[in-house]
Structures are given as C-alpha cells and as structure tokens.
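Researcher: We plan to redesign the surface later, but first we want a full-length starting point. Tokens attached.
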C-alpha cells in the first residue's frame, strides 16, 4: 500500500495516483531489465540525505518510507509499497538526495543507478511519462510543503533574504523559512548556531552547515547544485545561458546523444523564468508560468543527460583554436567543440 503525508489537493485520489503510480507486471519487467534485484532488511537505509546520484528503487515486496530528519523528530513524508518506485527530480539530476529512504519491512527491490534510470526514460516512452510526471509532481509537493534540507532565516524587509528566496525558488529547491519579525522559534535557532541578527539572511544546510548572508554561488556550492568541473573533459556543446533558447538548444543537442553543458549565472529560465504567465510561447495556448516552463525544459534537458551549472558566470571565450575554451572565472575553463551564446550581452 502506498501512503503519503505531503499536502494533497482536493482531487487527492487522482493526484496520488500520479504521484505514486502502481506499476503493472509488464512495467515491472521493463524496470527489472534495466536494474538488478536484491533483498532488503528492516532498518536498512537505502538512500541517505545528502547522498549524490543515489538512483531509484522499485518495490517488489516489503515497504520503504521516505523521511525527513529534523532536530526534534523524524518526519515520515511518504511510504512506498509493492509496485511503487522511489525518487524525484534530484534522482535524474544526480544532485544530493533531499530526504532519507529506509526499509520499514523487509522484502525485495529492483535497484537502478542514475545511468540506468536515464537510459530507461530515454528509451521507454510509457515509463518515461510515468516517471517524469511523478518526479515533477513530487518536487512540486516538496516545495509546497517546505520538505527539504535547507532552513532559511531572514526578514521580508531584507533585500538579501528576498534574493536568497528567489534563488532557491527559481532553482526549484525546497526550503523551510523562518521570519525574524514573526516566528517565535527563530531566536532559539540563532542562539544554537551563534548567529547575530545583523548576519541575516542565514541559510542552514543539512542541519550543520551555516551560511551567513551567502552569495548565490555560496549557496550553489553548499547545496552541491553543480558537479565539479573536469578541466580535461571535452564537451560537444557548451551553452551559455539557460533561458528558453539555451534550454531548447541543450534539449535538441542532448537528445541526439551529444555531451552538453549549460552555464547559467542565476537559475534556469532566464528572464522568462520570472514571468507570472507567458501566453505567446509555442505549444501553450492557455499560457504557462515562466517558472513552470523553465522547470519542464530543465527536466527535459536532464532527461537526455545534459548537465547544468548555476550561479556561474562565463566571463570569457577563447576562439583562437578548436576546441574552444569558455572561461568560468577563478582560473577555471571548460573546453567545447561548439559554443552557443544564449544570454543577452550587457
């Protein structure tokens, strides 16, 4: 039996079916062909909060639960029974897991690492739609409920707080927010981490790392939003700018099997990502929010294996010889056979 503790809309039944679809025997067989089957033991932790590229588990028997560990308790977010699969958007991107997955009843699971999962969503249209829809909706619910690994302490009257909230929101990262002006629990948090009121906004990551008035780049590093740069790796394509044009270029190239890296100074979506509603974009006759458009395009790029670096500025381009070199500052350069500049100049 599948259960969920995250907030649900009035049409809870149909939404839960999309959040936690139950796989048919045929679908389980296609998962099995890509992964490996193994036994689980009660109490075993399959995915720990903060682990990278943790992969996906499909429950054949037994039960798993998804939990968030807080200072006061362990909060159960969802329960996976037979026929259900774990994961959300970070499973595709390879970013650190936001929550912990543990075994509550011994049984058997199919385990797929990230590479196998990406291969499945690229090759199997039916399972691709099922997985991507569930992963997108799960991330939406995590954001709505503030179920993540980040606590933000600030004030609505502080420009730095607004900047950090915008960065986390536009990068689709769930967080819990405490307002200095309204929440009585804030002072206890400030005292615990020895933070002075003048040092806000304060971001606490995974209950241990404390950032005082962090820059966007500091946040990206603390949350491991970007993979380490491999200066020796040759990319088929580097796209500078993750607005709609840049993301579209990345999707087209990655879907043809090219090695694609996207470099974005802020967050996916560019200027369009901040729009409340876009009504003149092809394929959305009733309109779509910039955030939703950016999120879908980003997920589509990830589906085909494209990588993205956020809060990173491309400060120079060397075209004297091929491969070309894109300068990311701090003496870091990436090489590419092709470079697309999809960001407006200043």
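Model: Full-length starting sequence:
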């Amino acid at each position: 039996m599948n259960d969920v503790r995250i907030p649900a809309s009035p049409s809870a039944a149909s939404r839960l079916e999309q959040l936690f679809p139950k796989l048919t025997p045929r679908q389980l067989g296609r998962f099995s062909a890509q992964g490996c089957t193994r036994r689980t033991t009660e109490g075993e932790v399959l995915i720990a909060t903060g682990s990278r590229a943790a992969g996906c588990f499909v429950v054949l028997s037994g039960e798993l639960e998804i939990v968030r560990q807080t200072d006061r308790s362990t909060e159960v977010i969802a329960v996976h029974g037979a026929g259900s699969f774990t994961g959300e958007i970070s499973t595709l991107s390879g970013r650190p897991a936001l929550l912990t997955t543990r075994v509550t009843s011994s049984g058997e699971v199919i385990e797929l690492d990230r590479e196998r999962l990406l291969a499945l969503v690229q090759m199997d249209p039916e399972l691709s739609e099922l997985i991507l829809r569930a992963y997108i909706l799960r991330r939406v619910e995590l954001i709505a409920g503030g179920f993540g690994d980040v606590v933000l302490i600030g004030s609505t009257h502080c420009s730095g707080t607004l900047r950090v909230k915008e960065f986390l929101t536009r990068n689709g990262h769930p967080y819990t927010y405490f307002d200095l002006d309204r929440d009585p629990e804030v002072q206890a948090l400030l005292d615990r981490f020895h933070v002075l009121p003048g040092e806000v906004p304060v971001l606490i990551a995974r209950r241990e790392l404390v950032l005082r008035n962090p820059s966007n780049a500091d946040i990206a590093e603390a949350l491991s939003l970007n993979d380490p740069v491999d200066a020796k790796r040759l990319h088929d394509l580097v796209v500078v700018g993750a607005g709609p044009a840049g993301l579209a270029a990345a999707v087209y190239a990655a879907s043809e099997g090219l090695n694609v890296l996207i470099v974005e100074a802020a967050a996916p979506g560019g200027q369009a990502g901040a729009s409340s509603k876009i009504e003149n974009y092809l394929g959305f006759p009733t309109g779509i929010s910039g955030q939703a458009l950016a999120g879908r395009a980003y997920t589509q790029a990830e589906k085909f294996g494209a990588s993205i670096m956020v809060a990173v500025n491309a400060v120079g381009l060397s075209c004297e010889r091929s491969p070309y070199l894109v300068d990311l500052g701090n003496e870091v350069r990436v090489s590419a056979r092709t470079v697309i500049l999809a960001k407006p100049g200043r």
